[in-house]
Amino acid sequence: MKIFIGAIVIASLALVSCKENTQVNLVSGKVFENCAQPLASTEIALKSNVGGSFSAPIILGSGITAPDGTLNFTYELEEEDLGTGSLLLIKSSGFEVLLDNVELNQDVDLTLYRNDLSTVKVQLAGTRTFSLTDTLYYSTARIMDVYQKVQPVNGIIDSLTISSSNPNADNQQEVLYYGVGLLDFRLAEVGATIDDSTYNKLQIVLNGCGTETVVNLIIN
After folding, report:
1. Are 177 and 84 in contact (CB under 8 A)?
2. Region 41-62: what's the mean pLDDT?
3. Residue 49: other Cβ atoms inside 10 A
4. Is 136 in contact with 148 (CB distance < 8 Å)?
5. Span 173-196, mean pLDDT?
6. Which of 59, 139, 167, 174 is positioned for an S-S bond with 116, CB 3.0–4.6 A?
7. Residues near 112 by Cβ (< 8 Å), separated by ≥ 6?
8. Residue predicted with more confidence, 5 or 46
9. SS3 per-residue string spanning 164-184
């Protein structure tokens, strides 16, 4: 009987020790379809990345967003586990990465956007005076839309909405290219795909929903 009781005590101590080494972490926040519309009834999961304490990616936990996009779920790790993870939007045929490089084993409270849209104001400057036959064309390297202004004048000539290629990440680089007349514009379009070309293109920075970037086109 004493041996049996001793075994129970040892097992209980082992369980207590295990629990003491386990940390419960909270993932919370809100998820949006775009900059304004909440994303409801959608599963969001946290996947560990290879590195730190993880030799292979695993799903650590997940939760379903509420009607207003609110997200709350917990996951457990040993206190000494280190590394980063990715927050995934789970679909019927795969997943989308909403955010990379989430520090593991700590609580996070996040606002996430499935379509992270930046506002870019196009401002024209320079000494050139445009005639009635002059058309300024412009676009960015990641979108198919071509914008144009006939006989533009200096000042803010347009406001563009551009989706980030890496949602929920700051300082995303984008290229805006332009030309006066279609021939000049097509030359700039080719140059936009060449890293060391500087012909009629500008680097702009996108920071997602709620941010605005002003890009200056100086044409002399």
Report:
1. no
2. 94
3. 17
4. yes
5. 92
6. 167
7. 29, 30, 31, 32, 44, 71, 87, 98, 99, 167, 168
8. 46
9. CCCCCCCCEEEEEEEEECHHH
The predicted model scores a pTM of 0.77
Greatest Cα pair distance in the chain = 103
SS3 144: coil
Residue 79 makes CB contacts below 8 A (sequence gap 6+) with: 21, 22, 23, 105
C-alpha span between 82 and 111 (Å, rounded): 23
Is residue 129 classed exposed, middle or buried when 0-12, 13-18 and 19+ CB atoms within 10 A define those classes?
exposed
Question: Is the model's pLDDT at 10 over the cut of 90?
Answer: no
Q: How far apart are alpha carbons 116 and 125 in whole angstroms?
A: 29
| Closest alpha carbon to 21 in 104, 83, 79 | 79
pLDDT in tens, 64-76: 999 999 999 999 9
